[in-house]
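Honest question from a wet-lab person: if I give you the sequences of every part of a complex, can you actually get the arrangement of the whole thing, not just the pieces? Trying it with mine:
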Amino acid sequence: MWWSLVLRPQLVCSPHKRNANMAQIFHRSSNFVARATLVLALSAGGLALAVIGGLARSPYLTNQNVARQQPVQFSHKHHAGDVGIDCRYCHTSVESSAVAGLPPTKTCMNCHSVLFSNAGYLEPVRESFRTGQSIAWVKVHRLPDFVYFNHSIHINKGVGCASCHGPVNQMPLLWQASPLLMSWCLDCHRNPEPNLRPKSEIFNMDWKAPANQAELGKKLAAEYKLRTTAELISCSTCHR
Amino acid sequence: MSSTPKNPPPLRRLAPVLEPGHTYASVTDKISAIVLTRPAGIAWFLGISLGFGLVMILGMALAYLIAKGTGIWGINIPVGWGFAIVNFVWWIGIGHAGTLISAILLLLNQKWRTSINRFAEAMTLFAVACAGIFPLIHTGRPWYAFWMFPYPSAMGIWPQFRSPLIWDVFAVSTYGTVSLLFWFVGLLPDLATLRDRSKSRAGQMIYGILAMGWRGSARHWHRYQSAYLLLAGLATPLVVSVHTVVSFDFAVAIVPGWHTTIFPPYFVAGAIYSGFAMVLTIAIPLRKFYGLEDFITMRHLENMAKVMLATGLVVAYGYMMEFFMGFYGGNKYDTFLAWNRLHGPYAPFYWSLILCNIVIPQLLWFHRIRTNVVVLFLLSLVVNVGMWLERFVIVVLSLHRDYMPSAWGRYSPTVWDWATYAGTIGLFVTLIFLFVRALPVISIAEMRELVAHTSEEKP
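Yes, you can. This is the full assembly:
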């Protein structure tokens, strides 16, 4: 085979076969090696680019769909899904501020001073309450520092929590449902209408876009006075 | 010619493009010997040591730049473009002679291009390599440079196609690629010659692989010549386009001194001017040290001097027009710019520029100067310096005092600016020295053709 030429170069250049003038420097199969090298180099380059491009979009780098361990066994599925607590009970500033806000331990204790008050797995919560030391929750949705993301504008312009965060009411441990790539942001900023919902449905985890969403989206966009696409995708809308 | 009457002054006989008495074998022997048989010599080692020492300085300057950022340079507001852009434009301009000689002169059937095209093309490639470093590092975060290429990115956006920076990427990379292809295709028959003449197994293998199976059959020559001509056609518009695009870096901005429609042609002329100066700077020592006077004759040197004179005059016209427009246009900022060049803090640079680029090169009108090798060499250095000063004047003088006096400032390069600049010169020198010892500096195949032609037209 051709690779034996690489392993045994004497096949390519065999000095004992040479005579004064008309010696062959290369074995005949070198032609094949040369062509194979070209094909392999091109396909290796293409493959490398495909791998890099795929890797950049993969959960390995975006952390999409990776459930995170937290210092407390907190389940969004239990609280938001089974019990049916509104998102805003804990994330109080989501309608009025850039950040949705993490609840203080006191919010937990509103219920857990009475419910499951002796449960072992809630000890970190009680300890935090006793000592005044905040629970070190692990941040699941990390945006780069140069992105000035604002929760309130999205909530007030008709983007539901689940549009970005996914079915949080079905997540025992929270995971990042969206890739959070810039292209993902821009997909919606370029064409927000499919993701708009009525004010009343913003916090509804189970809302499904109706059949007439195309029509509804257009109507809602006018109602919410959405900026033009050019403004929505302008650099300084998100980067300052 | 034999019956020329006595009354008119005798026509000066042009020096030949190839000294008489050469055969196919002597041409091949002489050129391939530089690579294959002649020892390198102490001068070569000294030269490459100097060049490589400067490359090490370049490495240090770049490493420190990447660690610390562009703050190590002298740039600041208002002069945000300093040495990086000055040197970029200077190098890319130098690179222009190669394509002009190889492509345009080939299509115009100028036989005298034959002995200078090979090393002029090599010089082009090395100059483009030096030039390419600067736009990359001037961005401050060179590791994001791939953002300038249009690829399907995870950011969901394309590069800003309205930005001259992106035009530069396309112009320079196209130029580099086509120049490299042109050079390599031209080298093929010579690589085969070196393969066949090489005594060492390594030489046979390396030149053999590079020669890509060239056997010199009629079919090979036929395809080779089609490919070469096609590439020449492809490269021809690039001679004009690259420096036009580089001039757009300035001309599309509204800074007084940059926002001028004359920039593209004036930049192209300046590029060819500096390119030919650099070809002379290399050709004169080259023919001296390797005894190539028979191949690179006075005819070549004189022709190059004439191209320099012509393009130098175009450049002078450009300067004149800038002044004319400064006053005729009546824009007070343009008028001030003209005044500032003559009398401002950087006036010595401007006057040196006029001296180097316009006044001194007028000596080239004289036949005796054009045929004096030493003076020609010095003149080529003067033009190299002058063209560097031109870019300094364009970049720094325009930026340092633009509109509001409250926003004026000064620029002076730091030691790192100088280190980077000197480093690229070292890189250039190193590559030239390696090239001289590794590849035939003159196209052997084309010289053989020239032998055939010149023996036919014997008087």
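Two things worth pointing out. Chain A has three domains: 3-57, 76-100+140-238, 103-136. Confidence is low (pLDDT under 50) at residues 1-20 of chain A.
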